């Protein structure tokens, strides 16, 4: 019971502090921004965490295959998370104003910063599986303590500089967590820190380039709903088009992942129901 309460306090630490130090309106802007972002990236995070853990666990005694499959998962998860978060970043204004109306425009900069958190959370979830796969639950526990200390330090340092800087602190905290996870993975299996980073750098660059291109559509005089639709469709077409142009290995891997983990399951389910 006590551990559940403590966990809930840390999970909602930013909400609790912002609500206490600032006001309900400020908390509302932050809460809506983070909730919308979490809804987007949590689907990817949950799916890959559930799928990757049993697959990686089956390879725990074969580091060569474990590294190979881990990097495939890392590229695949990045192929989905990076474009999704960059698309949300660049469409933040029409997205929030269409969903919540212009009264919530103050949450836009928070939402855009939190998109960086959303980029990394699926990767953090995936890399967090490696200590569990290697039977190092003790290491996972120690890392959780370290991350909570970093969270408290981040809030303590930024709380009186305003909510914007608290969100910046949140992003920095998540970046540090990702870096620590990569370092831990490097120690546990035969994969370098740089190899993990460079496995998704191409995806990050393509996602950023497409976001930069789509950004300029906002200068066309559209209603917000049409601006949102045009930007989203343009982002999807450009992103997939560039990957097709360069015969992206990641695109092939994601199609294979969909085939194995989604279409095949749907087929099995339809046969059972039939």
Query: How many structural units, i.e. domains?
Result: 1
The number of helical elements comes to 12
Low-confidence stretches: none
Name the average pLDDT: 84
Q: Name the overall outline.
A: globular
Order of helices and strands: HHHHHHHHHHHH
- In terms of quaternary structure, the protein is single chain
Give the helix level as a range of percent: over 70%
**Approximately what portion of the residues adopt beta-strand conformation?**
under 5%
Q: In whole angstroms, how far apart are the ends?
A: 44 Å
Query: What structural class do you assign from the helix and strand content?
Result: mainly alpha
Task: Present the secondary structure layout.
Layout: H1 2-11, H2 13-21, H3 24-57, H4 63-90, H5 92-100, H6 108-127, H7 129-133, H8 137-158, H9 163-188, H10 193-215, H11 224-245, H12 249-273
Helix pairs in contact: 3-4, 3-6, 4-6, 4-10, 4-12, 5-11, 6-9, 8-9, 10-11
Structural summary, described in words:
The protein is mainly α and 274 residues long. It has one domain (2-273). 85% of the residues lie in helices and 0% in strands. It contains twelve helices and no strands. It is globular, with a radius of gyration of 20 Å.
Which labels suit this protein?
12 helices; 85% helix; mainly alpha; 274 residues; single chain
Short description:
The chain is mainly α.
């Amino acid at each position: 019971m006590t551990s559940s309460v403590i966990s809930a306090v840390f999970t909602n630490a930013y909400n609790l502090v912002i609500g206490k130090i600032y006001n309900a309106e400020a908390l509302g802007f932050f809460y809506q921004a983070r909730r919308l972002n979490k809804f987007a990236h949590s689907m990817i995070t949950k799916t890959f965490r559930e799928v990757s853990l049993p697959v990686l666990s089956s390879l725990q005694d074969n580091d060569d295959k474990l590294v190979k499959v881990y990097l495939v998962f890392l590229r695949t998860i990045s192929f989905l998370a990076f474009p999704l978060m960059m698309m949300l970043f660049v469409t933040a204004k029409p997205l929030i104003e269409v969903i919540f109306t212009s009264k919530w425009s103050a949450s836009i900069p928070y939402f855009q910063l939190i998109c960086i958190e959303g980029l990394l959370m699926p990767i953090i979830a995936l890399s967090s599986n490696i200590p569990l796969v290697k039977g190092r639950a003790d290491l996972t526990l120690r890392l959780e303590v370290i991350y909570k200390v970093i969270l408290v330090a981040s809030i303590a340092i930024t709380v009186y500089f305003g909510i914007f800087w608290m969100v910046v602190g949140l992003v920095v905290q998540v970046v540090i967590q990702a870096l620590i996870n990569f370092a831990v993975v490097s120690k546990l299996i035969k994969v370098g820190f740089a190899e993990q980073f460079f496995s998704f750098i191409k995806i990050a660059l393509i996602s950023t380039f497409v976001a930069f291109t789509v950004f300029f559509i906002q200068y066309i005089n559209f209603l917000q709903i049409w601006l949102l639709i045009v930007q989203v469709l343009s982002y999807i077409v450009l992103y997939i088009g560039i990957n097709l142009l360069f015969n992206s290995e990641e695109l092939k891997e994601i199609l294979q992942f969909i085939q194995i983990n989604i279409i095949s399951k749907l087929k099995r389910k339809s046969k059972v129901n039939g």
